[in-house]
């Protein structure tokens, strides 16, 4: 009997998924829980995550919640210390400023870069020492296809997501010899709650048609990629950006 499926199990591991109250973060967290990990759901308020924690526990999975604002580094540090050892980090949380370049001030740009990119570095700094001590870790930074295929009206978001992909490569180069892999996960057009209005618009229809799959992805379709990168099966995958976009970035015109 093949033991290959066991390579995707995360039994005994603790995984923190930031921004996991809904959307892609929630689906990745649920997937890791189903793979056997104890999952730490994250949002600004741990109290608001109680229904999601209860849902996972009722299904027989191990789950807890931690709350902090990514812009509050002291609260971040306190929450990570209280959480204890973390084996897998999926950094998914991020904000988006949907305005033209001319309307975004340098201060606005710097604020979003801080929340979406610099905060990821700060969180990794807190978690990595424990991974080094244990000789095992998985860092997964959620980027976006806009890191390579820019769109108008999102200059700071494009820059931040590009920075996350580059940060993953830099961390892979430095931490690979310590038993830690670092990769980026790059989603395409997903039918999340935050994209509901866009999906119903003419632009959303264009994006659907632009995809070779001719549809928006169901949020559940991100979970398999996250499980793979977090699992022992991906032990030699390091510094890679795994694109989950139905073929958008592989095509010029579809």
From TrEMBL:
Domain Ketoreductase as annotated: residue spans: 13-188
UniProt cross-references to PROSITE patterns, sorted A to Z: ADH_SHORT
Pfam families the record matches: adh_short_C2 (PF13561)
Entry's Gene Ontology BP terms: monocarboxylic acid metabolic process
Origin: domain of life: Bacteria
Coiled-coil ranges from the UniProt annotation: none
Family: Belongs to the short-chain dehydrogenases/reductases (SDR) family.
UniProt-listed NCBIfam families: PRK06124.1
Protein name per Swiss-Prot or TrEMBL: Gluconate 5-dehydrogenase
The species this protein was found in: Enhydrobacter aerosaccus
């Amino acid at each position: 009997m093949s033991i290959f499926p066991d390579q995707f199990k995360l039994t005994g591991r603790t995984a923190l998924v930031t921004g996991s109250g809904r959307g892609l973060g929630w689906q990745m967290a649920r997937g890791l829980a189903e793979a056997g990990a104890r999952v730490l759901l994250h949002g600004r308020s741990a109290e608001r995550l109680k229904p999601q924690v209860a849902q996972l526990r009722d299904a027989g999975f191990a789950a807890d919640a931690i709350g902090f604002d990514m812009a509050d580094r002291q609260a971040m540090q306190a929450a990570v210390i209280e959480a204890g050892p973390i084996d897998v980090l999926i950094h998914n949380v991020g904000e988006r400023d949907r305005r033209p370049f001319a309307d975004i001030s340098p201060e606005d740009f710097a604020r979003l870069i801080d929340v979406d990119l610099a905060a990821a570095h700060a969180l990794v700094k807190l978690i990595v020492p424990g991974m080094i001590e244990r000789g095992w870790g998985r860092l997964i930074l959620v980027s976006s296809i806009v890191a390579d295929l820019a769109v108008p009206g999102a200059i700071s978001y494009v820059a931040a997501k590009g920075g996350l992909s580059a940060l993953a490569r830099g961390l892979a180069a430095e931490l690979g010899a310590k038993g830690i892999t670092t990769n980026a996960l790059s989603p395409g057009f997903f039918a999340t709650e935050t994209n509901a209005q866009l999906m119903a618009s003419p632009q959303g229809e264009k994006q659907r048609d632009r995809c070779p799959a001719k549809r928006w992805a169901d949020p559940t379709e991100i979970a398999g990629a996250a499980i793979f990168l977090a699992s022992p099966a991906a032990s030699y995958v390091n510094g890679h950006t795994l694109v989950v976009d139905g073929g958008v970035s592989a095509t010029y015109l579809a």
